[in-house]
Amino acid sequence: MLTGCGGNPVATTSLPQQENSLLSSTPTPTPSLVSKPVKGFICGYNTITDGGETISNISVLEIPAYIPDSSGNLPLVSQFSDYLKEEYPQDWNTPEIQELNSKLNASLSQYKPLSEYDSSAKVYSIYQDSETDTPMSVTSEGQFEGNVLTNEQDSSVKLEVTLGEDEIAETETIASSSDTLASSATSGVVLKSCPEKIIALPDDIVILKIFSDHSIDLKKAGLKLSLNNKSIGCISPIVYLCIFGERKHSVAYSALYIKKNLDTPIDTVITATTSTGLSLNIPLEVVKRCAGISGRVYTGEKPLIKGYVKSIGPKSHCKLDSEGRYNLPAVFLGHERAVIATWWTQGDNGKKIKHREEKIIDFFNSGVTDFDFGVPPTPTPTLTPSVTPTPRPPYDEFYNKKVSTVLYQYNQWETELGKKEAIERIIKWLNGQVSDGPPIPDEIAGATSIGNPYDIWVEFRDGMSICISTSDPIVIEEQDANEPLPRKEEIKPLINLTAASSNNTTVKNADVIMLSPYYWEIISGGYRVENLIEGYLTANNYNVKCIMTRMNESQHGDEPIQNDIYFDWNNPIKDNPNFLNPERPLINCYKAPDGNWDNIVSPWEIETIGKYGIIYINAHGGPINVDEDAFNPDYPGTTSFRMSCTVDVLDRDGTLNTKLERWTNKHSSEMGCTKWWFYRYRKINDVTHKAWAREIALTNKYFTSLNADSTTNFKGSLIYWCGCCAWHMRDSFNSAKAYIGYDRFSNSKWAFPFAYDFFWFMMYGAKDCPKKFGHLVIPYAPVPEGTPSFDENKPMDATEALNVLTTYYKVNPDPNPYTDLSTTDGSGFGCTAKIWQKDENEHIYFPVPVTVTVEKKGD
Fold first, then answer.
1. Geometric angle at alpha carbon 104, from 46 and 37, rounded to 5°
2. Please, what is the Cα angle at 189 between 188 and 192, to 5 degrees?
């Protein structure tokens, strides 16, 4: 196993990018440090690359690797095979596990106690100074125990190991606990892994540890692991070790074998799940190919005493020369590669001062030079004044004009070559690899794909990056003539919650917010939460804020048409006004003359939703960097997801700096697929037009930032996100009381009325829910059979409502077989609504805007 270089890696499944790009730079950290106990066995071993290069590796285990220690603990190699034989006899006899066990045996036989591996080796916390601080004591068997300083935000304890004069390695372990018997409670628990990110070579063995922040009993919780990309290797079932005669279920071990002869880099994930609803995606990167990185460390004119720069690879550690220069000849190519510089300068008082700076780079192409650290000297000003260009705001029309040229070339090649070949050719063209292509638009630096083969990421020279999505069109639909218009229901009063047990509860308040930025996509769209449930709640004196964007819309066919936005189909955006109008132009969307900015969703509104007890979002979602056609909801292969916040709405006369422009300009530094938001260009079709339009997409990292802030988080709220793949964003909302989302791409004919029925069941019970010929108003909904086991007149808690829709009405998952592919792509087949609760034992009822009476049954 290769030891990582620290940092906070993000799970990705990206294809090799065309350009190396710096993602982040972190100077000398000043974290909040705490002291944590650690103990175990620290070992060293070597890995040999395909090129014959030797890489030093350091690993920490709870028990000896290969030879029993003086305490009598059986070594890992014996415990691993014995546990697999006893607990998983069928798996044990498979060729894959036999090969894995053989490789594990051979690998562990090479592990040596640290002092035997390198007699001069010393162990520190990475937050210590190896020049001045005292190292940890390590026995001849490699055993150590003590307290070390660590960042209180780190999930693992990171150690630094000096190997002789010329090399320093980093490794990870977990804080030790005296608890051998683990707790069975899982409320508020988060799964963690050690290492946090796995980097491995082909024909390599990785030892992985899973634990939690509350030492839960992982065996009782039903912990399982799965390798998303099974073609690259094999992962073992979970193993629990016996330490000092007792089986320890708070830490789970597994081994991963990576096959030979793989084309690298490969990014995937290992998914850990429990039967209690916990989950964790562990990034895995397989590496082999290398390139060089060189540069200089600048000391800000302070005297340099010594230092080094390191990354990961066969020749990825270098001492600084007297001028601070370094050269790493062989660093593994891959995603989010960490390069760390550590150096000491002489302070004014003569004392040594330690500096540490970490840079993260997407390192996919040729080598990198002038990759510098520290504070470069200020250049001497010249007498000739220079002009510094004013940075453009993200919404500047300049970008639309340049992108329009790319889109029109794509239109042409898609017609000639088909979608996938057109995408490949666009990327090659923008990277200067098409000799007979048209001129590349000014200021475009290149293009790439990051895992979804239908997306094109266009990079500008000023750092701007946008996404062209070719597979996810916006389709403006009229109401299906065969689908009945929703009837105007009689407004019924809501029944006060009467609790029958101490576990009955509700959300933090009776305030409700509904966001529907693409309401205009389906005109008069049947039974929907935002156009019907909103009215019932308002009539029952709820405080409801409903933001839905309309276009040519009349809710019941007898009301005035309302427009908040309109598309300018007749004025294509063109970089050159002399260009012919394309068949599918890029167009702008504007606020309608009678429209209201308050009806257009922006991140400003989203940042306030945490104050509401009930939060309903109807917006598109999806993964950012995996193939949509191959998306597996059980093993998504990524932790990067997006929400379509809104189509980018402009002001017609251009004099108003719109709320969307103000937000994107304020957060321009957070723009990008690995940050908070990005612009996404999508096809848009209606009955008579087709074009391209731009939208604002928010990533799960944006919602994670809201979730982590006490002023914007979702504590005490129930959240229902009616959108594709929304279930996979639940970790970004885990401060909430409950979260409901769809596990894959959904069809609106199911998704909208399903959400409507869910809230109706919570508000009124099932009896009077709108039905058609005895079944719910959902396509292919069956007529329920038998006598219901629930009280149809009683309002349901959230979990009960979902269970009744699943087991009695049988509309979860979506019952539509999608056999008629002439009218649908079938992407909604099997879509399932799922619920997560912070406390799985609670019964969460819909709130009422009055004092709730709680009655407890007699003893």
1. 75
2. 145
DSSP state of 214: T
Q: How far is CA 786 from the centre of its chain?
A: 43
The two tokens of residue 452 are 């979804």
| Angstrom distance (rounded) from CA 244 to CA 797 | 46
- Determine the 3-state secondary structure of 425 from DSSP: helix
Nearest to 114 by CA among 35, 56, 181, 189: 56
Written as six digits, the tokens of 328 are: 């790493």
Place of tokens 């070559």: 417
Model confidence at 27: pLDDT above 60: no
pLDDT at 551: 87
Bridge-based pairing state of the strands 143-151 and 167-173: unpaired
Q: List, for residues 784-836, the tens digit of each pLDDT value.
A: 998 999 999 899 999 999 999 999 999 999 999 887 554 555 566 889 999 99
* Rounded Cα gap, residues 762 and 795, in angstroms: 5
**How far is residue 645's CA from residue 626's CA, in Å, rounded to a whole number?**
20
How far apart are the C-alpha atoms of 14 and 639, rounded to whole Å? 12
DSSP string, 242-272: EETTEE--SSEEEEEEEPSS--S-EEEEEEE
**Residue 179: predicted pLDDT:** 44
pLDDT of residue 8: 30
Strands 504-506 and 512-516: unpaired
Q: What b/e readout covers 411-431, taking b as 16+ CB neighbours within 10 angstroms?
A: bebbeeeeeeebbebbbebbb
Closest CA to 610 of 516, 736, 728: 736
Task: Compute the distance between CA of residue 120 and CA of residue 575 in angstroms, rounded to an integer.
Answer: 65
Q: What average pLDDT is seen over the chain?
A: 83
CA 218 to chain centre: 24
The amino acid occupying position 242 is C
Residues in the chain: 859
Task: Choose between 274 and 177: higher pLDDT.
Answer: 274
Share of the chain above pLDDT 70, in %: 85
What percent of the chain lies above the pLDDT cut of 90? 40
